[in-house]
Amino acid sequence: MQLLELLNIYSKQFGYNDQNNTILLKGDEIYQAYSMTKPITTLAALLLIDKKLISLDDDLSKYIPSFKNKNIKIWNLLTMTSGLTYSGNKSNTQLQIKKVLDDWKINNYTLEQLCDELSKIDLLFVPSTNWYYGLSLDVLSRVIEVVSNKSYRDFVKEEIFNKLNMNDSDYYLFDKKRKANVFRWTYKDDQNQLDQVENFDFLFQSIDKLPVCNLGGSGLFTTADDYLKFLNVLIDGKLEDSSQLISLDLLNQMKSDQLTKNNLKQFFNWNLNEDYSYGFGGRVRIKNHNDNNVIITSRT
């Protein structure tokens, strides 16, 4: 990934936020960002690394003792090479994580409790030997809490949102009137149609009130304009006043290919596009690169 300059030369919203009542999008809607949360958490962790409060080579168990003997490093969490997955039914690991996430929602676990439960599951593979998309960044958000002695949300708000003037970003839907509605394709009466989903709470304990546990891999609510502010700081790590938020060296590592040939093969199987690899907290383009990029926010 190579960000040279982000200029908002054209911004336009299309379609309806509520097609049943023909309410058009206004442009200030608040979206459930889901995995776009991951780069935010990544930057938060890199801020701690920049201050030498944690290291890429640190054992996870140094900060979360229940992960003792798992041999997971901070680097593994940033690169999705920890052996942690999301829930599913393709492996014993996914089935175990499904139960943990079900219990997390029912019992209203804190982030600390969630991570302690995740530490009990069988990893999909030995850390660093493969790649799999999963809950690594969510566990990393607990490391941020332990090291900063603040909640994950408070740390991100103080060190990122406030400094970037991301005033429309948080970890719950703080303004219901600006909710970006969710739609999904369904097949009905021999044709495809878009149906509005009233309460889309996948991977959320709650939406319209602050949950007990804010997930660093999926919990963000934000606007298109706010997220553009975040992307701008990834260019050179500088704030609007030209002060340095994060070192350029760490930013370059974040945007660089971090995978070996062995775990890159699994990434290609998942990604189905050999133009990309994985950096810290997100995929990065490694070939057929051009400098033109389009950012689209959608709720389907």
Short description:
This is Beta-lactamase family protein. With 300 residues, this protein is of the alpha+beta class.
What's the SSE blueprint?
Blueprint: E1 16-18, E2 23-24, E3 31-32, H1 37-50, H2 74-79, H3 92-107, H4 111-118, H5 136-148, H6 152-161, E4 182-188, E5 191-197, E6 221-222, H7 224-236, H8 248-254, H9 261-271, E7 276-278, E8 283-285
Antiparallel strand pairs: 1-2, 3-6, 4-5, 7-8
Helix pairs in contact: 1-5, 1-6, 3-4
Comma- or semicolon-separated keywords:
300 residues; 8 strands; 9 helices; two-stranded antiparallel ribbon; two-stranded antiparallel sheet; alpha+beta; globular; Beta-lactamase; single chain
Verbal overview:
This protein has 300 residues and is of the alpha+beta class. The protein has one domain: 3-Layer(aba) Sandwich (Beta-lactamase), CATH 3.40.710. It contains nine helices and eight strands. The chain has helices spanning 37-50, 74-79, 92-107, 111-118, 136-148, 152-161, 224-236, 248-254, 261-271; strands spanning 16-18, 23-24, 31-32, 182-188, 191-197, 221-222, 276-278, 283-285. The chain has a two-stranded antiparallel ribbon with strand order 1-2. The longest helix is centred in the first third of the chain and has 16 residues, at 92-107. It is globular and about 55 Å long. It starts with 15 loop residues before the first strand and ends in a 15-residue tail after the last strand.
